[in-house]
Amino acid sequence: MEAVVRAVTAEAFGVAAKAVQADLADDGGRLALSVRTPIRLVSIDRLQHEPSALQRSGGSVLERAAAAERTIADRVSDITGTDVQQVGVRITAADVTRERRVR
């Protein structure tokens, strides 16, 4: 189950599953998840030249974390059949990748 949580979280944040840590706990018969993960971000340079890139990338870090909590709960429930009570997300690092120019 931990591998599923890590994979779903990695997909939500655009990072490798091996970079994600997950703790699972029982919360009154329902699953409580706590995940720690880096997040892939759009570079500041790109945002200065193309402000709309922020919304296309999913919004601010806080907006993306909030959306990811819902996504993780839904996907883990769908895949495992487990009732997920809550998901806590802690961002541990930022992965800012420079975009390649298209020629």
Model description:
The chain is α+β, with helices and mostly antiparallel strands. It has one domain (2-95): 2-Layer Sandwich (GMP Synthetase, Chain A, domain 3), CATH 3.30.300. Helix content is 41%, strand content 31%. It has 4 helices and 3 strands, in the order αββαααβ. The protein has helices at residues 2-13, 44-49, 53-56, 61-80; strands at residues 21-27, 30-41, 84-96. Helix 1 runs antiparallel to helix 4 (61-80). The chain is elongated. It starts with a helix and ends in a 7-residue tail after the last strand. The mean pLDDT is 89.
User: Which sequence of SSEs, written as H and E, runs from N to C?
Assistant: HEEHHHE
Distance between the termini: 43 Å
Uncertain segments of ≥5 residues (pLDDT<50)? Answer: none
Estimated structural class:
alpha+beta
Q: Which CATH C-level class is it?
A: Alpha Beta
Helix content: 40-55%
DSSP strand count: 3
**Number of self-contained structural domains:** 1
Organism: Amnibacterium setariae
Protein name: Asp23/Gls24 family envelope stress response protein
Structural topology:
Elements: H1 2-13, E1 21-27, E2 30-41, H2 44-49, H3 53-56, H4 61-80, E3 84-96
Parallel strand pairs: 2-3
Antiparallel strand pairs: 1-2
